[in-house]
């Protein structure tokens, strides 16, 4: 079958036409025909050979961890999914260690050993291939009406988990806080999906991104009622004067300096949610004493979040349906390019189409 693979030892990324087509190996597995695979910053790191590792014994890793596919075969013990269903798969699989309570309780996103596997990222083939096989426990059935946008499910789970954690963090306060002001740092797919999730939860949300308006990101924010400000024109101090201090800052850039710069816009008792992974070698100068003083004196919390659990995928699918009903066309506008597998490297390196979210299409 056709697949997009990275060969770390050869420092090579290419389409292979002779990848073994996977077959069912257990009665609880399903075989899926891939429709679309999203491309993101993690893929860029992998094709730059700064991250990613093949399955044991192999010299290549099939890429892709944001996926929509169609079930074409089911094992004899599969329940809840049938042939013809659209599905999205989860990414991370648990480590084997008994001491890891997180993995043993079905939350490998909180794994403490680091010996988890991640499809398309770490020691397990991904979904950027014509077919893949997965245990039914790790796939989520997609309503047919979400066919055009369901490839966004996995990136949306980043916001779902982050906001779920936010709910737990806010329980520390002696009162139940109402949704307040939120700032989304970054106008990429993760940021804009986080914007939609925050608005749905009642937050007055502002997008604070590098690129100046007008641009497609600003247009989507405007379509759902979110102000859009450029970091090139508005400092963090001016941001506070314009929209008020943020009860929540949802970081979606992976740029350390931009994140530190905006920390001054965080309100007392506020929460900074970190979702981006900074690039290797990014230099940063900061007044550590001032940062720590602010966090302590204002009862603030910095929370990192990675990967997502089953309930976050379920919530993402529910939210996608809500977004489409509330803001017709807004979610679709995030998907600005569909490309063949042969274009993977150009897509991940930003050499084709530009736009907001590009996907690889197998159909």
Descriptive report:
- Helix 3 (153-170) crosses helix 9.
- This protein has two domains: 3-149 and 331-361, Alpha-Beta Complex (Quinone Oxidoreductase, Chain A, domain 1), CATH 3.90.180.10; 156-304, Rossmann fold.
- The chain contains ten helices and 19 strands.
- 26% of the residues lie in helices and 26% in strands.
- The mean pLDDT is 96.
- The strands form four sheets. Strands 3, 5, 6, 10, 11, 18 and 19 form a seven-stranded mixed β-sheet that branches. The protein has a six-stranded parallel β-sheet with strand order 14-13-12-15-16-17, sandwiched between helices. Strands 2-1-4 form a three-stranded antiparallel β-sheet, with no helix packed on it.
- A hairpin with a 4-residue loop joins strand 1 (3-7) and strand 2.
Give the arrangement of secondary structure elements:
Blueprint: E1 3-7, E2 12-16, E3 29-38, H1 41-47, E4 61-62, E5 66-74, E6 86-89, E7 92-93, H2 101-104, E8 117-119, E9 123-124, E10 131-135, E11 139-142, H3 153-170, E12 181-185, H4 189-200, E13 204-209, H5 216-223, E14 228-230, H6 236-243, E15 246-251, H7 256-262, E16 266-274, H8 288-297, E17 301-304, H9 310-326, E18 335-339, H10 344-348, E19 357-361
Parallel strand pairs: 8-9, 12-13, 12-15, 13-14, 15-16, 16-17, 18-19
Antiparallel strand pairs: 1-2, 1-4, 3-5, 3-10, 3-19, 5-6, 6-11, 7-8
Give the helix level as a range of percent: 25-40%
- Give the averaged pLDDT, no decimals: 96
CATH topology description of the largest domain: Quinone Oxidoreductase, Chain A, domain 1
Strand content: 25-35%
* Rg (C-alpha, Å): 21 Å
* Spatial shape: globular
Q: Would you state the CATH class of the largest domain?
A: Alpha Beta
Pfam families: ADH_N, Glu_dehyd_C
Cofactor: Zn(2+)
Domain Alcohol dehydrogenase-like N-terminal: 27-143
GO molecular function: metal ion binding; oxidoreductase activity
